[in-house]
Amino acid sequence: MTIEVSSNFPVQTLRLVVGGDLQEVDSAEYLADKKVMLVGVPGAFTPTCHVSHLPGYIEHLSSFEAKGYSVTFISVNDPFVMKAWSEASSASDINMIADGNGDLTEALGLVMDASGFGLGKRCMRFAMAIENGVIQSIDVEEGGALDVSSAESQLAKI
């Protein structure tokens, strides 16, 4: 893994879905002066991501906000898929990063090979607490699990 606690988040252009709108913003600008819980998933609409992971964050969003955190999801999908996922999941209050080429996932060192499932290179499942662009914690799942990166696990940590 490339990124570690106390590292600065990589500076890149983010392709975001914010409140249903597509936009581009510099990561340093996006993360400045705020706390963000960044949640990485292998793919929008994939079974665990769609049925369990995202819904947990939707359910507990107000608890994250009460602790001063916004929630953002990232996946190696194009912006249109991320927008459709946000809409289909009623997740308009959770921002979505579309990392279509996997550039940010690669810069973070969180690439997984899912070619055995026909998915190619994807993002590992993780949760990362970021404050003002600095990584405070990172929890990466092993072997397809949904444990340390769940909303409940992250809420217990922050």
Q: What is this entry, summarized?
A:
With 158 residues, this protein is α+β, with helices and mostly antiparallel strands. It has helices spanning 27-31, 47-59, 61-66, 79-88, 103-108, 151-157, and strands at residues 13-18, 21-26, 35-40, 69-75, 95-98, 111-113, 121-123, 126-131, 134-140.
Number of domains as seen in the coordinates: 1
The structural class is alpha+beta
Helix proportion range: 25-40%
Q: Largest sheet at a glance?
A: 7 strands, mixed
Radius of gyration: 14 Å
Overall pLDDT score: 91
- Which regions have little confidence, pLDDT < 50, spanning 5+ residues? none
Portion in beta strands:
25-35%
Do you know the CATH topology?
A: Glutaredoxin
Number of helices: 6
Which CATH class applies here? Alpha Beta
CATH superfamily: Glutaredoxin
Describe this protein with a few key phrases.
158 residues; alpha+beta; Glutaredoxin; two-stranded antiparallel sheet; 6 helices
Topology:
Elements: E1 13-18, E2 21-26, H1 27-31, E3 35-40, H2 47-59, H3 61-66, E4 69-75, H4 79-88, E5 95-98, H5 103-108, E6 111-113, E7 121-123, E8 126-131, E9 134-140, H6 151-157
Parallel strand pairs: 3-4, 4-5
Antiparallel strand pairs: 1-2, 1-5, 3-8, 6-7, 8-9
